[in-house]
Amino acid sequence: MSDTPYGPAGTPGHPMPPVPPMPSSPPPAPPDALRAAAVGLLNLSGLGLGYLLLRRRLLAAACWVATAVLLLVALPADPDGVPAGVLAGYVVVLVLAAAHGAFAALRTRLAWPSTAPLALALGVLLLAVPTGGTLWYRDAREEAVQQALLDRLHRADETVTAAGRHSFSASRSEYRDALDVYRDLAVHHAGSRAADQVPDSLRTYYRTVGAPYTSGDYCGAIEPLKYLRTVPQSVPEDRLGSLAQWPDDRLATSLYTCGATALSGDGEAWVEHFGDLLGTFPDSGPAAKVAPAVESAVAQAQKDVGGKSPCTAVERLRELNTRALTLSNSAGSSAAQLTASAGRAKRSGDAGAYDCGIDQYKDGEFSAAQKTMEDYAAHAKGDKRERARKIAIGAEVAQTVPAAGKKLPTTASGGGISVTVKNDSPDDITVLYTGPVTGSFTLKGCGNCRAYTFTDTLSAGFKPCNDSGKNYPKRTISLPVGTTYFVHKPNGTSTAAPASDTARIRSGYIYTECAYTTRTFGN
Description:
With 523 residues, the chain is an alpha/beta fold. It is 56% helix and 10% strand. Among the domains are: 33-126; 412-519, Immunoglobulin-like.
């Protein structure tokens, strides 16, 4: 042993040399890439275990906070998943924690385990935590998506149920909204549990929309059934199956039944309904009933001409003629039958006008009777034509002298008593008469005659047709005994009102009838 300036070590009088100070932290360990990889992997688990093995508790806590924030945002699982910004931020935190932990562990010994391979194995094992969590979250999110789709389907079903409590026109928009949901689920979410239930929902949808048909409201069923026929434009037919044709037979039946109801009444909707039926379902059973139904209506109207309301029946026949012809233009194979029915309706209506005119005359509707009989006589042939003319004359007389309308004119003519009618008027006139016989004729105006003033007619010595110096246009007719009603009306543009006279014809006399006009004030 050698001596030192301090003397032999540990001997009296020679103190110990000074001890160097302890380092503030353990000396760096030799670089160990395996250890760095282990810490990095442990930090990638999101649990901050790599920092715990390095005794970096604050950094480990930061990892815990980041993971807790992610869990708070992600749970419970939402159909939309975790917001992309949150997920990206969390990934950045994990990558930074892994990189920083690996760098710090390169020269820092682990608190536990003592060997890097064991830590690396633990890191690889703990990677199952984020991996398993990701898989679990994916399943949870998929379930959330399925539930959200089922909720949409349920709400659409409730919308349909609520809409079914109201009329179709009031609920059309609700039905459209529900159909949009069904279409979206069936087309864009095929394979989902909600999409698997769409066929059942659609069957309920069709039954609800078509409920008026089920309840027997055929007219009310037409609009919703037409709407259901448009559904295949929105939902692919392969998703609808047999529902695509579900409305067809029901709509054809509704169009016919509603049209037949209108045909038996006074409306004109039957033309539209039958036209839709023949155009849309020309080969259907209901379409084959259209022409016979129209023919039956014509036959009934023909029968009604002889009933209590012949004018109503004539109007009905004319309506059937017009509308059957309109319908025949687009009736396909039924066109010939409808055209034939229209022809029968026209002929029967024209013939029935005679009965209508008589009924109007008897009811005191003289103006209508005159027009009806004039129209009939203008087109008819045979014996009724002449009497129609007589009735028209009688009706015109009765409009001025109502007593003339108490009896229907006949076709009788002539008589044993002469009646001369003179015209003491500057106007051409038509003389109408009815009674035991009925007829009319015209007289030329008197060239040197004038229209009398109202004052003239009030004077005591007023006697028209009494000027021997005038050559009055005149005509003599033969009438039988009885009361004959005369009306003389100016022709042309004269504003003079018709004049009238009642002649009670008796045998043994010669009668003169005078026609004149009275000038009104201001003329």
